[in-house]
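QA checklist item 7 of 12: single-chain prediction sanity check.
[x] sequence parsed
[x] length recorded as 459
[x] structure emitted
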Amino acid sequence: MSDPLSPADLSALAAEQGPVNMTVGAVLIFEAGEGLSRDAVAARVAERIHLVPRMRQRLAMAPGGLVAPTWVDDGDFDLARHVRRLVLAPPGDGAALARLMGAEMARPLDRGRPLWELLVVEGLEDGRVVLIARLHHALVDGLAAVAIAAVLLDPSPEPAAVEPPADQWHPRPVELRRTLTGVVAGPIARGADLAGQVVERLLEADPRRTADEAARAAELVAELARTRPQAPRLALNDRLSRARAYAPATFPLAEAKRVARAAEGKVGDVVLAAVTGMLERWLAQAGASLPDGRDPVALVPVSVRADGEEGGNRFSTVLVDLPVSETDPLERVRAIRAQMSALRESAAVRAGALMVGAAGAGPPILAEIVTRALGTVRAFNLVVSNIPGPQFPLWMNGARLLALHPAVPLNPAHQRLNVGVLSYDGRLGFGILADGRLDPGAAVAAEALTAALAELAAL
């Protein structure tokens, strides 16, 4: 038996070429506790892994790239390969943890195994323990990652009672001929249909649902990205290396809500205004200016997940101009609020879903063509991903989770800095992932973001 990948899951696989690593990450910082040893964490995963079946599945890749991969049970699944331990050298400070996170985010996951890992990090100052979680973007989007974390964590110091599975887990065998028969025709037909949808809905042309349309999907999607001016060329958008650097930042959620109320906007508008202030400071440190005075552009993922829908990727994207040229911080929030309101009223969210899906609705070879085509269009300068998380404390074996910081993969190959945001227990946890060779680097960007947040808080 096997499970198909969604179009966006396939898109995430196709994007992973050259220096692009589509691993999603998170840093979970816990108070000191005996229940956070490597063995205790592995025991917790073993106790609850049946609640997330995908964590014991790997990709089954067909030869030649003509048939889409599927999820199949991993007959050689070994939990010891996925839960590891590392001890930081003294003094175990925040800078050392950030360097470790950068190194982990530079390391691709093994596609021959289930696409996730947990690293238990000890040796931090004050006795705290950190879990570094890494999951492939084909396995989860941001909301699904939060759902997996909720399965492993508890809402109280006392671990929740979890019903064991009714039967002992055994990998389900894959009947190759039946699997291939079921997936060969479907993706090709969906690719042709998708190209027609793209033309019909977004270019207002008469679709011809033929196989030739599927072959032209890359050209059509690239044309969609050209319907607005290209983003300005910044140092953020030079060639990407394989190295990664990471830096966190934190901001009280109540402060963000207060600023949002003052601007009659949302917390997401405040986040984008803070990133705008970060870019203003980063550009000044780099001694750079905006080409032709054009503002940077952020790609902002928007969830389109239905209520009760779990796993995989269900999201759309919108492009937002970040008003660096506006010097008043509150006016920046208002300008972004106006943009986001207009985007929500338009077909942009639906269009973004089609663009995300276009790279994965056809067979893998077509998906790679679409991904390359999108990489030739500089539609945005960075990604800003803001995911809502639980606003109450979580625990692992009696140890409280103190902070949570995400990491969003760098993609395409000319994008060198991303900002991830995850709200948890009254705080916004920011995570900046950058090319390890970006100058100024992730640490400078985090300092600039902290200064921009403080500026907003002072309003």
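[x] summary fact logged: The first helix runs from residue 7 to 15.
[ ] second reviewer sign-off
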